[in-house]
């Protein structure tokens, strides 16, 4: 590919010296990638252009699930506090996309205001129109958890007759926008209802391509006994196998992530271990943020490269004057064959090509008079970025991860119990307030006297031999 750009010439090209992965990503994008995006109208077919906020934003956790699966309760559980605008109930209560972020005081900001603020990463959401922006809101909370991550609560996905209600905006498109920028995507399922509605299937299809980010939570498991849990888990895996088109289903966490006592206590140990694993997964997000952004930009490069070749191939086959409309219809109909020709001619990877059905829809509404000519200079810049700049940025990743490790993972809220008392809280294990309650019931003086007496008996590893008397 690009045989005129020999290896020697590539080695002679000068690249910028980067001091951090974030700085390098910004420079590479605006200098070498965005010009090709604009030239090839990539934003009209796929993801809109990245902004300053996309590079500077905190890691994002996106929660998706059908209504009443516990998404809002899960966020409340992590924060250990309510946030402005939250509503919890058995029926669909969250009809907005809500970004929960750190703020000096609790307040909300409407979506139209967030979409015009360059300090946030939501500028390109304006493409989905006022109907969506009226259903988008930012909730700011002074909470330590939000120092490290931003949490995105999504509308409860409808099922049955309810899913026929038109939302008034491109729901799947918005889901895709958030999933492409998220560091982790959490799909929540209720142990009492595992049916995957048509709208839920479309939402799962919208996050396709982000399989490495997906985590699955089977929630409210304490409301069923062990035998029922085994059946529910098997049914969930069977359902997911039909919807998620991957050889292996993503990691499934089992538990009840809310601040309520367990109804069935027989699987407490399992729930505590699952919670511990999920918390470790969440806490690792800040450490992997730089790697995720680099990986996403590389994937974007590959998509843009394929997109530019496709449009060039279509332009080359279009007549200059007569019969353009009929030729356009023929090319759209023959798109799979054109994909294969483009792949072979340019030595591309089949997995980098877009969905044929979606590409057909976009081409049908696109003005073919704007089909761009091949631009070798812009394509050479993209190749230079992949072959020279990306390896240099990858070499900086260990330093970035070391700095992130020093800062630590997610802290505050429920994460303060991580690694203590089996990492559990509330109804899911030892009570973190047990000592305070003991002092309240018995009296602080008596508690101190009991402790001194216990130490006077010379315990070994916190235990006393069976023959030792505890009487004073």
Features:
472 residues, globular, disordered C terminus, alpha/beta, 8-stranded mixed beta sheet, 47% helix, Topoisomerase, domain 3, 18 helices, 3 domains, 8 strands, Rossmann fold
The largest sheet, given as strand count, sense and whether it forms a barrel, is:
8 strands, mixed
Supply the number of structural domains.
3
Q: Return Rg in Å.
A: 27 Å
Q: Care to count the β-strands?
A: 8
Assess the beta-strand content as a share of residues. Answer: 5-15%
What does it look like?
The structure is a single chain. The protein is α/β, with parallel strands linked by helices and 472 residues long. The protein folds into 3 domains: 7-53 and 291-405, Topoisomerase, domain 3; 60-284, P-loop containing nucleotide triphosphate hydrolases (Rossmann fold); 435-472, no CATH class. It is built from 18 helices and 8 strands. The chain has an 8-stranded mixed beta sheet with strand order 3-4-2-5-1-6-7-8, sandwiched between helices. Helix 9 (198-206) links the parallel strand 6 (184-190) and strand 7 (214-219). The longest helix has 32 residues, at 376-407. The protein is globular. It starts with 6 loop residues before the first helix and ends in a 16-residue tail after the last helix. The relative contact order is 0.13. This is Dynamin-type G domain-containing protein. Its main location: membrane. One of its GO terms (molecular function) is metal ion binding.
